[in-house]
Amino acid sequence: MSRPTPVDVVVIGAGAAGLMCAIEAGRRGRRVVVLDHARAPGEKIRISGGGRCNFTNRDAGPRNYLSANPGFAISALKRYRAQDFIARIDRRGIAWHEKTLGQLFCDGSARQVVDMLTDDLREAGGELRLATVITGIERAADGFTVATTAGSVACRSLVVASGGKSIPKMGATGFGYEIAERFGLALQPTRPGLVPLTLDPALLERLAPLAGVAVEGRVSHGKTRFEEGLLFTHRGLSGPAILQISSYWREGDEITLALAPHTDIFARLREMRAANGRQAPATALATLLPKRLAQLIAEREAGAGNLADLSDKALRRIDEAVNGWRLKPTGSEGYRTAEVTLGGVDTAGLDSRTMEARTVPGLYFIGEVVDVTGWLGGYNFQWAWSSGWVAGQVA
Length: 395
Ligand code: FDA
Fold this sequence. Notes:
The protein is an alpha+beta fold.
């Protein structure tokens, strides 16, 4: 067997975190090889943000992340901030805009971000080996030996940046978790996050007329709430507010929808009843909500008759149905459509300044494989950039 090619750093995964880390390590003069089984680098970047890549969030901070240890992300996010990535995008001349809630997107295409990273990697002297399957990883006296279908590589530092399980069709695997377990690191249980929620068939049938209806709503789960778009689909609920809450929701939990969170439905219906009691409740509600939603709620809560027939108690019931609609999703659409994987490599086993495994010197975990998961809105890429950058300073 031929001797393994000696390098300083092997990065497993040419995604957002892996490319960032490899660039930084390369700029420090380290000899870096990035291995990926995919045919192209940064595939999730390319399809992200509807093809425009929501590459960061201007306000990214630890409160925007879920983790068994909520303080873990603080150090990396402080050392490499959203502003640092924006400066990189600006230096490259990529035009961008803020869409909403601090979410920054390319004006043109997400490909510009992938090209920036692969060009930077090349300039930093890093080598990208695509379509390469890793067949084994062994601990060596002064590092690791990584066996692949294209020969073996020996390295001092091994950086695992293989992402989560979301969208297996795009090459996502649980490989990073296997490596962590193999080296004795603990895992936090994984589950799909930022994912549409499904409803039971009986409820779905009743809500069938709403498929396609969207509102600017508020969704709550306990004390956590998000006010963003909410969409009824033929499978259940989707839209940014639902994706956000899905990361907090657990099977068996209830969520509460407010479909017109800034409208006092009770007060408005009372006014309308006083002004024109002969109106049908559905017609009155349709001035406050999308028509199909107004119809469904009025049919369910008001029955036949007009506004004048409805007592204050009945109006309150309608108000509750609109802004305090409690329901129990039956599940989620799973990894097939989830944007991220919650859980992962337990942060207790990692140094928050460097992402190095505490018990295995030279082994690093960065990006989504780590138990740090961001909200929807550019936070996940910022975690990939920040964790990749800090590891790249030392690996
Ligand atoms: P990432 O998944 O990017 O990269 C992992 C790499 O490892 C891949 O290239 C993969 O091929 C490789 N790999 C996996 N297993 C391997 C193995 N066994 N051997 C070799 N290589 C292997 N976030 C955000 O902030 N803004 C956004 O706009 C979006 N939009 C978005 C849309 C969609 C449809 C999805 C699915 C996700 C998003 N996200 C997002 C989330 C974001 O894409 C995600 O959090 C980051 O890509 C994570 O970066 P990583 O580098 O950790 O993993």
